[in-house]
User: Fold these one by one.
Assistant:
Number 1:
Amino acid sequence: MSAVLKSPPVFFRPMSGEDLDNIMTLETRNYDFPWTRQIFADCLRVGYLCQVCEMDNQLAGYCIMSTGASEAHVLNLCIAQGYRRRGLGKRLLTHMLELAKHRQVGTVFLEVRPSNKAAISLYEKMGFNEIGTRLDYYPARVGREDAIILAKSLEV
Ligand SMILES: CC(C)(COP(=O)(O)OP(=O)(O)OC[C@H]1O[C@@H](n2cnc3c(N)ncnc32)[C@H](O)[C@@H]1OP(=O)(O)O)[C@@H](O)C(=O)NCCC(=O)NCCS
């Protein structure tokens, strides 16, 4: 008899102010230039799409997307280190794209550092295409780093 190992279920739900302590822990662990708590609070206040994913009753990741005028921008996507390479980034982003469709979004944009090969690979697999570059967009440990601009149409 062979055992079938199932991974625990993943839950998606809206972010709330009560998540911010855990989110700030992940944010500061995962980014060299983390957002402040106030930025997250502002995203919640203005009604951006703010979602978290949970596994094993733990906060495994979060994503924030602004929407307006048929466009959306992925502003932050983060999966906790212990939960990476299990398809969660892909599933959370897919979930966000579904929510964006319900807000009549036609095109989703995002920026990514050229050095962030993991994220670029994820976005390309999700059907995002490079449409341009923003020069010196990000702070870096030395000087500044450009941003690659990616876009994906949600229209069929
Ligand atoms: C980028 C990030 C969200 C990916 O999350 P994840 O849950 O590990 O991604 P998934 O397991 O869904 O992987 C989907 C695809 O992304 C790519 N990918 C993910 N991690 C990768 C890595 N370390 N190296 C190369 N490709 C990687 C692969 O193409 C992968 O597909 P595969 O598993 O079939 O090879 C995660 O690494 C993260 O939170 N990084 C820190 C924060 C960050 O940089 N966010 C993006 C800012 S623009």
Note: The radius of gyration is 16 Å.
Number 2:
Amino acid sequence: MVDYQKLLEIGRDLLIAIGEDPEREGIKETPRRFASYWREFIEHESGNIEVDFALSDTGQMVVVSGIKVWSLCEHHLLPFWCDISIGYIPGKRLLGLSKFARIANQFAHRPQIQERLVFEIAGEISRATNTEDVIVMGTGEHLCMKMRGVKSSGAMTTVSARGQLGTNANLRSEFMQIVGQNIRA
Ligand SMILES: [Zn+2]
């Protein structure tokens, strides 16, 4: 949980530190907005991910793509967005569709790096579905890259894979192919 009073102080101190007058009309309310933004972002409630399992043991790979999350680069505290695609081979537990976005958001709403974000999502999918065969791919654009330094507009892609999806090249390329089709569709 965040310390809201402390955030109010920091918002005010931040304005002072960058040479602004915190009493100026336009920014008088900025410390309050700043504190609310941080509280909403950090205390984001992803919802329950433990319910609505269906049973399945067809051994087919399930691919979910087009999940977009906003996160915060932990090096600069600037936002990055990330398109998440998830593939897994269910054991007996099939996860309800809405749960994937919840899991992704659960790990996005904190100071993060993209590599750890996809790694943690893969770990949670694996835990929740009780299968080792999981792959998570994220393609992100980072404001810290775009607005400062190199001002690059390039996207970064990171992949975390385990089980068969880590070792079986055919399964991996099947996943990549399906994701490509989903994105074009
Ligand atoms: Zn950064």
Note: The longest helix spans residues 114-129.
